Amino acid sequence: MKILVVNCGSSSLKYQLINMENESLLAKGLVERIGIEGSVLTHKPEGKDKVVIEHPMKDHKDAIKLVLDALTDKNHGVISDMSEISAVGHRVVHGGEKYSSSILIDDDIMKVLEECSRLAPLHNPPNLIGINACKALMPNTPMVAVFDTAFHQSMPDYAYMYALPYELYEKYGIRRYGFHGTSHRYVSKIAAEQLGKDIKDCKIITCHLGNGASVAAVLNGKSVDTSMGFTPLEGLVMGTRCGDIDPAIVTFLQDEANLSSKEVNNVMNKKSGVLGLSGVSSDFRDVEDAAAKGNKKAKLALDVFYYRVKKYIGAYAAAMGGVDAIVFTAGLGENSPEARYETCKGLEFLGVKIDEEKNKVRGKLTEVSTADSKVKVYLIPTNEELMIARDTMDIVRK
Fold first, then answer.
1. Same domain, residue pair 13 and 88
2. For the residues of 74-90, what is the DSSP string, one character each?
3. Site (Transition state stabilizer): which residue positions (predicted)?
4. For residues 354 and 221, what is the distance between their CA atoms, to the nearest angstrom?
5. Residue 69 labelled as part of a binding site
6. Active site residue ranges
7. 211 annotated ligand-binding residue
């Protein structure tokens, strides 16, 4: 069975084609500037050189067609025709409270996904556009929605509720949802395997650290808390997002700086985080380089980030009554030895000991804690696409 995994943004589309017989990657690629001048597809068949195709794409349907053409091309394709694609798995950011697992898409499901767009206006609409584009070109191919929020639907009510008037939850669905669920689910399963334990007997803290970042408490295989909330703005300091702040800052800026709600929202989402603190970049690599050269604001930005992650680890260890393993994943978590070391420094009281030599690694599954560390620390590369493909295959077979 071959599964096409699709992740649509407003003007971009990432894809992977995976052979589920052995979970091998056949091809992957990225479409950029959809609906914009200079549309381009970068297609990479496994074991071959990448192919760059510049071609006008007025919408996502054009983009999907170009992807299918690339996958079936005589020279750089990896399948003979579209019929070899058994199903399509779509990343959908928000499933609201309705979905705690992935689901086969039909007309009724599409209506619910449209309703969820009010909770994720920047993410769900492009996801839906991608689904509709695939349905138009592949009408007889099963489509599955895999939600970023689904894994966190196991949070207890006392963890997901805000202390606002209850009717705001009932009327508008204002509560904590959490995101990056597919990644947290994947790496927590791998961590349990590394521990040699059944995940139902594990207490695992997963740290998805990238430009967007979140921490999750995974107790006995289920998410019981996570740092992102109603939106992906809550929680950790991120590339351009501020994370946790006093909510009164919003009204203060509206009154004192004469900013509109949209302007404040833009500041918090796009001008804050390590970019706002450092004044250097939203890319952690640039900020680390600047800090190493003596830039005090860059060092401050990193210190704030490490401190926030450390606080969440401590909080989630308390929430679960202990921790067996801490996992670092995503761009920064996988590729920054400094981020892992600085985050874990000071957690010795929990039984965390980092092996500095073993920690000098990037992008490779590794235990980076010492042999006598009571809490194991792992670098585990995430693979959300494979998780989406697995869910898609399971649902289609059922």
1. yes
2. TTT-SSSSGGGEEEEEE
3. 180, 241
4. 24
5. no
6. 148
7. yes
Query: Any binding-site annotation on 379?
Result: no
In a domain, 253, yes or no: yes
* Percent of the chain residues topping a pLDDT of 70: 100
Cβ neighbors of 288 (< 8 A, separation 6 or more) are 298, 302, 336, 338
Q: Is the pLDDT of residue 356 over 80?
A: yes
Burial level of 152, CB count in 10 A (0-12/13-18/19+)? Answer: buried
pLDDT digits 0-9 by tens, 290-306: 999 999 999 999 999 99
The domain tally of the chain equals 2
Portion of the chain with pLDDT greater than 90, in percent: 80
CATH of the domain at 340: 3.30.420.40
pLDDT in tens, 170-204: 999 999 999 999 999 999 999 999 999 999 999 99
Rounded Cα distance, 5 and 13, in Å: 10
Q: Residue 102 is part of which domain span?
A: 2-147
Q: Indicate whether 265 belongs to any domain.
A: yes
Residues 246 and 333 placed together within one structural domain of the fold: yes
66 annotated as belonging to a binding site for a ligand? no
